[in-house]
Amino acid sequence: MALFEALVVGHVAAGAVGLIAFWGPIVTRKGANRHRRWGKAACYGFLGAGVLAIVMALFSLYGPEARHPEVTDRALFDGLFGWMMLYLGTLTIGFVDYGLAVVRHSRDRRALRSLRYQGVIAAVVISGAWCGFYGLKVGHPLMMLVAFIGIAAMLIQQRYIWRGEDFPKGTHIGEHFRALIGMGISAYTAFLSVGLIRMVPEHVFNPAIWAGPSVIGVSLIIGFTVQAKKAAARPRPASGVRPHPQQVGDSLVQGEQLG
């Protein structure tokens, strides 16, 4: 029990760092030093929270029953605090990994086809499929919804990775934004649907709690995508200064790699 409580404290601390730092890259100039610093803080925070979420989920699934005397529906508990938490932790790690990898390998997409990256994507898809199936079994639509969103996101990533012809220059920037905003969506969904629900269980079926992070995150993705397309369509300045999207790409390639 003491070990589990320590995991919870570590998870909350790491998650708080990620949840707060997530907004830094959103509001700062893309590619700037502050953007990269905030992005690294968010990624490290969410990576830690994701790993600890997986460990906590395994404890919830296979730990002593005595730790949860309040549980009356064990199957539903296993679904929400076991399989869905495990999946959301894996999904968060998957988004972080891909979001950084597309920048690191912006000039060679073939590197993303290696077992190293494909294994992470496969783990997300498998855990998501089981989460959705288990949600169907226990009749919980939230589990099915988050599973569908995550699996669809992985398939979109695979389209970028495996498409034969070259994408327009700078496409990896959009992939980077989408993945790391997806990271925030999965983390905030986990916080609201698993963490916050422990304190306000009467809102466990509130659709606003389930859908809120996805609505905000998808809106940000659309906004950044439109902004990037407009910037790409601007004529090159006479001074030879590159337009914004390529500036972002160069800055990210040079400075945002985590190892």
In short:
Helices cover 77% and strands 0% of the residues. The protein is mainly alpha-helical and 259 residues long. It has a domain at 75-233 and 242-255.
Which geometry do the CA atoms define? globular
Contiguous uncertain segments of 5+ residues: 239-259
What is the first-to-last residue Cα distance? 36 Å
The rounded Rg comes to 19 Å
- According to DSSP, the number of beta strands is 0
Which class do the helix and strand fractions yield?
Answer: mainly alpha
Helix count? 9
Beta-strand share of residues: under 5%
What characterizes the major β-sheet?
none
Order of helices and strands: HHHHHHHHH
Helix content: over 70%
Q: Please, what is the average pLDDT?
A: 77
What can you tell me about this protein's structure?
The protein has helices at 2-21, 23-27, 33-62, 74-104, 115-138, 141-162, 171-199, 207-233, 244-255. With 259 residues, the chain is an all-alpha fold. The chain has a domain at 75-233 and 242-255. Helix 1 (2-21) runs antiparallel to helix 3, helix 4 (74-104) runs antiparallel to helix 7 and helix 7 (171-199) runs antiparallel to helix 8. The radius of gyration is 19 Å and the shape is globular.
